[in-house]
Structure formats: structure tokens, C-alpha cells
Amino acid sequence: MPDLELQHKFTLNPPNASLLINSLHFNDEGTYIVKVNLKGKTTVSATQKIDVTVDVPVSKPIVQSEPSYGAVEHVGNITFKCSVMKGTRVLYEWLKNGSPLQDRSGYIFSPNNDTFTIVSVTKGDIGNYSCLVRNFVSESESDVITPTIYYGPYGLRVFSDKGLKVGEVFTIDIGESVRFDCSADSNPPNTCAWIQRGNNSTVIVNYGPYFKLLSDKVRQKTVDYLCRASNNITGREEEMQFTVIITPIDPEKLSQVTGSLSPLAAITGVSLFIILSICLLFVWKKYQLHRAIQWKLQSRRPSTEYRRTPIFSGHEDAINDFGIYEFVSLPDSSVPHRVPGQASNVLHLQDINCTIYEVIQHVPEQAQSDPQS
């Protein structure tokens, strides 16, 4: 190794002969030989070989699946391949749902483990797969990839929103409208056909996930139906047959229903009556309060207001004239005052206390008998 000191890359520190390599690079990989010679009375020589390997940190791996569109259960295969752009002496490990993938039948791995294949996929192979890569200086995990696996239909079942189900028999009352639903585990979702059986014949009555039955339009009391679920990609079908029994309404049940409605109707009527009575009472109270306020305001008006109104011939404002009045008459002492019908007796008027009506009664009589009064 010529020019060790001039390159400023290799540093030799005697007497222990340690060698420092600065800024390690791929070109520094190789085998280094150290020779030691000890001279003295006895010359001793030793040789040591050292292999130097440079590791590059791994980059984030990328996982691809083939075929990309998915595979059919029990028919197709899926292959996963993991690759990195940078990294040396890379070790590969496969994960499913975050846990190391256990080797089993149906899994085939490549020699360096960067590729594995699922042979004859099943529904249980659905999950999130990822690739973990590492070397002596770094490690990295890829994004998860979920393969598409087509399966089913499985677990077909039929249920209704009304009626009584015992096994595969539904009992409903005549006149009821019942909805039957058909469901199964399938990818992609299955398509359903509803079939009515009778007299050695079949009739498709509806397509879709549910079927609505109007019991009053069915002539037979017992009808057999069939729900057929199909997966267009897997080519699988599953069927379920069920029987519908239409029963007349039980008179006791009808009376129970009517009896349960009568108390409800009575409670409803009483409640409405109470609410209406409360509303009427509230309106009446409000009207009475309004009248009381108006009367109070009118009673507080000053009496002069009545004086401002024109004076009529009647007694429109006589309510304000009630009271005790003092009528004083000052007749001429030289002229006697006579009362009609008693010409011989002279009536000397004195001061009298009387009401306004008494004044009205006496004044005209005196005015007729004595014009000067």
C-alpha cells in the first residue's frame, strides 16, 4: 500500500500497528494482509488477513402483487415481490397484519426470500401484507398491500321483518305485508333471485336482495319459495328453500288488539279535552284581565272630562251630579208667594236642603207662580 501518509486516508499508528480507514467507500472493500517482523536474537514473522466489506443502508422497499386484479378462491395464485433501490447484503422478511408470516403449505418462497407465492388462494389469505428489509446498518418496512380474492357465496340465510320463523317455515297472518331478505358472505356481492315453487313448476317472482310478499293476494295457504344467491366471478351458487304459511286472524287476538286500542283512544280523548279546556280557560282569563285594565283606566279619568262634552237636554252625565245640594231662595219680602191651589195661605219659603231632583221639581212651580223669582 504505497503512499499511506500522502493519501490522508490510511493512518498507521506504531508501535501497535493499528490501521484507520477514513471515509469508507466501495473501493475500500477487499482483503488486507498485516505482516509483523520482530528482529532480535530470534526473528519472528506473522501474517494476518483482514476482509473489509462496506454496507449501504437499505431504502424503503416496494411490494407488487401478480396478478394485480386479484385471484379466484381455490383457482388462482398470487405472487408478491419485494424490491429495494439501495442496500447491500439485504435480508427479506414477510409480514401479514403486522406479524411474521409463518411458513405453511401453499406458500412458496424464493431462495433469498424476496418473493413468495400463495398457491390456490382461499378466503383466509385475505389480509395486509408487507415486506421488511434489513442489513447490518439499517432496516425498513414497505407499505401494506391487500390482495383481492374473490370467494363465496357462503352462509346464505333468509329472514323476515314480520311473522314467526321456525326453522325454514315462516307463519304470517293474512292481510300482512312481509319483507323477506336474503344475504350471504360473498366477494363481489352476490345477486339474488326469488323463485316460487308449486305444482312441479317454478316461477321467478323477483330479483334483488329482498322480496315483498302481500299475503292477501296469495291464494294458497302454504307456499314454497326459494332464494338463489349467485357470484358471477367465482361461478358459485347457493340456494335456500323456505315455506310461508298464511293463517287467518285469530278472533281472540283481534279482540285483544281492539281492547288494547280502546284504553289508548280513551286516554287520548281525555288528554285532548284537558288541553282544549286549559286553552279556553287561558283565553277567558286573558279577556277578563283586558276588560279589568280598561275599566281601571276609565275610572281614573278626571271628572273634568265629562264637562268638556256638549250639554244635552237629557241627563247623560247625571251619574256625576248625585249628591246633597243647598237651594237658597231670596224672595221679595213685599211680595207674597202663593202656592197654586191655596190662594188664601201665604207660603214663606225658607232655606231647604234637597237633591237636584227636588230642585228640579220646585223651581218650575215657583217660576210659574212668580215670574220675578
From TrEMBL:
A GO cellular-component term linked to this record: midbody
Parts of the chain that traverse the membrane: 264-284
Domain Ig-like positions: 61-146, 147-243
Main location: cytoplasm
Localization per Swiss-Prot or TrEMBL: Cytoplasm; Endomembrane system
Membrane-protein topology: Single-pass type I membrane protein
InterPro entries on file: HEPACAM_domain, Ig-like_dom, Ig-like_dom_sf, Ig-like_fold, Ig_sub, Ig_sub2
UniProt keywords, alphabetically: Cell cycle, Cytoplasm, Disulfide bond, Glycoprotein, Immunoglobulin domain, Membrane, Signal, Transmembrane, Transmembrane helix
Name of protein: Ig-like domain-containing protein
